[in-house]
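JOB MANIFEST
job_type = single_chain_structure
chain_count = 1
residues = 239
[input]
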Amino acid sequence: MPKFVPSGYFSINKALDRLGRKLFPSEWNGEERKARRGLISEHEWLKIKGLPPARGGGAPGTGRGRGGAPDGPVTARMPSPPDDPSSPVYQAEYKAGERYASARGRLRVSLERGDLEAAILDPWSGTLHRASASLWRRHDADRMIEHGQAPIPHSPNTGTLLIKQFAEANEPAKPISPAKIKEAIEALKRKTATENLTRPQQADFLRENFPGYRITERRLNEIFRMVPVPKGRRRKSDK
């Protein structure tokens, strides 16, 4: 049964869908929240697939099975497509998870800045409690957004997290032009010269600084290729 949503508010999922469509006009499909967490990009998989498997704790190849008994030779098994990082199905799910993380991050930033307003519905009393900006500075803020639950003020219980309704942009985003792509590359170079950003954070930076333009994943990858990672800094492109 769908949870009750008071008039004037969105559920977390609907709010994320609106932001997701704005961030990824051509890619967002509304199923991003179902993507498994912890998947890796094909680039990251190519770097680690040739490494020897982990040993110890009963891992394959340790010579120990349940109860510490020898388990004999281990036969390698090829992963099935949903679990194979090199498969298109896996990578599509990975990209969906990245889109979801970007939309969730944008929602959190917008709530902390006060651009959007959230409330916590107490299901027992029906009271709506306004969520303070400090709630979005907590270490578990992303988790609250994912689960759509937040602590009820002055109560040991949790309530339903809701977002005050906001309008979608009337004008569709324009495709980003070659001239704007050059500007975006230079802007991102300046930003990453002083800050170590993950690729999703870099994507958020670009979309925030070039509003009104549709920056697809293809264009993002084009921009990322032109922005080198400073020497001595660990690459964080796929987190």
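[summary]
Residues 88-113 form the longest helix (26 residues).
The chain is about 35% helix and 10% strand.
exit_status = 0
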